[in-house]
């Protein structure tokens, strides 16, 4: 594909700042590779609630399902946090994931050697860590029904349901095994099978899928001890597949190991090439509008978009190399202990890409 249609959902807080940075870098990479893309901005989240009363307006949904790929910043913030509000920005994001059918959320975590000092862990514990989480994204506790509130005998109750069917588990675990094949050939399936029935089904299906993939090992890990092992044995992990909410929590932990929540990208994929790409961090209300956000998570999300949805493998590699080189040369936003703002960090990545291209790396 040489000309691509990308829907851009800046969203709330730092969302628009980081998507702008990511599109700038993607534009530079595309131009060098003789590729082009057109963008269309749409509303999602709090900004959409303010404009239309809905967190995911129909127009946004239609644009996203018709696009080659969707790039998202972040949604949410204190303005829309009233627990009794009719709708929330986050509901728009969940609705979009469901509407796009993106059931697998890939969150790669790679420790950059030059950032070992930004990690709260000792260098020897994390250097060389390289894992990818496959977070189930359209089922589990986030989507199960019944879900709601009720008053019984004058007492208010609230409830959520953790439910999976075998097909939902099978397709995401299958994807995890495929990802493991060209890597270290190890899948860790994370569950709470000592307590939850849904986890016991998850485990059974993981074993069944594993039997189809000779040469790839499968281990089961309970989610609580997995949280611990990420701190003590991060290097032992390769591909980790898990339920929606377990994956949400564990990946923020893993991001901190790699140096900052601002670094991690993600790709949400379904059956076809179309995907939804977003950094794993949120709208960071504390630094929004100040030009301080680390754009790397969004920039690497644009690289994943290029690779997975557009088939632009050279451009994706050029962006990733640009980030590596910029970081190796000392480019650091404040979350990494540096002084650069969003724009300066973005420029450092672009400069590093140019140098790599000048040295014959090609972009
Ligand atoms: P958060 O990820 O927004 O912020 C947590 C901390 O990390 C903050 O101190 C923030 O400044 C920092 N941080 C996050 N991204 C950063 C970046 N790129 N550069 C530098 N620092 C960064 O999490 P939160 O504060 O728990 O949530 C705030 C809002 O974001 C909530 O409304 C939440 O629902 C929403 N949220 C949205 C998404 C999404 O849209 N995908 C993801 C997570 C949270
Ligand atoms: C994420 C976020 C979202 C999630 C929220 C904002 C709905 O935390 O993308 O990690 O929990 O999936
Ligand atoms: Mn999250």
From TrEMBL:
Keywords: Amino-acid biosynthesis, Branched-chain amino acid biosynthesis, Cytoplasm, Leucine biosynthesis, Magnesium, Manganese, Metal-binding, NAD, Oxidoreductase. Residues 5-349 form the Isopropylmalate dehydrogenase-like domain. The keyword 4Fe-4S does not apply. GO terms for molecular function: 3-isopropylmalate dehydrogenase activity; magnesium ion binding; NAD binding. NAD(+) binds at residues 77-90, 282-294. One of its GO terms (biological process) is L-leucine biosynthetic process. Substrate binds at residues 97, 107, 135, 224. InterPro entries: IsoCit/isopropylmalate_DH_CS, IsoPropMal-DH-like_dom, Isopropylmalate_DH. It comes from the Bacteria. The keyword Kinase does not apply. It is an enzyme of class 1 (oxidoreductase). Binds 1 Mg(2+) or Mn(2+) ion per subunit. Gene3D superfamilies: Isopropylmalate Dehydrogenase (3.40.718.10). The record marks 142, 192 as: Important for catalysis. Its EC number is 1.1.1.85. PROSITE patterns: IDH_IMDH. Mg(2+) binds at residues 224, 248, 252. It is found in: Cytoplasm. Pathway: Amino-acid biosynthesis; L-leucine biosynthesis; L-leucine from 3-methyl-2-oxobutanoate: step 3/4. Its main location: cytoplasm. Its cofactor is Mg(2+); Mn(2+). It catalyses: (2R,3S)-3-isopropylmalate + NAD(+) = 4-methyl-2-oxopentanoate + CO2 + NADH. NCBIfam families: leuB (TIGR00169). Catalyzes the oxidation of 3-carboxy-2-hydroxy-4-methylpentanoate (3-isopropylmalate) to 3-carboxy-4-methyl-2-oxopentanoate. The product decarboxylates to 4-methyl-2 oxopentanoate. Homodimer. This is 3-isopropylmalate dehydrogenase. The gene is leuB.
């Amino acid at each position: 594909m040489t000309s691509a249609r990308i829907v851009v959902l800046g969203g709330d807080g730092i969302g628009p700042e980081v998507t702008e940075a990511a599109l700038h870098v993607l534009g530079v990479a595309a131009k060098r590779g003789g590729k082009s893309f057109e963008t269309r901005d749409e509303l999602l989240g709090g900004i959409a609630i303010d404009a239309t009363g809905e967190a995911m307006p129909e127009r946004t949904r239609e644009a996203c399902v018709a696009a080659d790929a969707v790039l998202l910043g972040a949604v949410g913030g204190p303005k829309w946090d009233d627990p009794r509000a009719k709708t929330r920005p986050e509901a728009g994001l969940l609705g979009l994931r469901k509407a796009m059918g993106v059931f697998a959320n890939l969150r790669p975590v790679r420790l950059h050697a030059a950032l070992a000092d930004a990690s709260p862990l000792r260098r020897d514990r994390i250097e060389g860590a390289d894992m990818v989480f496959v977070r189930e994204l359209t089922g589990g506790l986030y989507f199960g029904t019944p879900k709601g509130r009720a008053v019984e005998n004058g007492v208010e109750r609230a409830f959520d349901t953790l439910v999976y069917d075998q097909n939902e588990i099978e397709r995401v675990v299958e994807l995890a095994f495929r990802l493991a094949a060209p890597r270290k050939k190890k899948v860790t399936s994370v569950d709470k099978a000592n307590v939850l029935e849904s986890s016991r089904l998850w485990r059974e299906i993981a074993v069944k899928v594993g039997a189809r993939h000779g040469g790839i090992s499968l281990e089961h890990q309970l989610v609580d001890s997995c949280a611990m092992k990420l701190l003590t044995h991060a290097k032992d992990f390769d591909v980790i597949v898990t339920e929606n909410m377990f994956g949400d929590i564990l990946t923020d932990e893993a991001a901190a190991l790699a140096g900052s929540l601002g670094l991690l990208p993600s790709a949400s994929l379904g059956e076809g090439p179309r995907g939804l790409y977003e950094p794993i961090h949120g709208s960071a209300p504390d630094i929004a509008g100040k030009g301080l956000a680390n754009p790397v998570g969004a920039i690497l999300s644009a690289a994943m978009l290029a690779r997975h949805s557009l088939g632009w493998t050279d451009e994706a590699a050029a962006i990733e190399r640009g980030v590596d080189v910029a970081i190796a040369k000392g480019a650091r936003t404040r979350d990494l202990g540096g002084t650069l703002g969003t724009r300066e960090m973005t420029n450092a990545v672009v400069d590093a890409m140019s140098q790599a291209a000048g040295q014959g790396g090609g972009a």
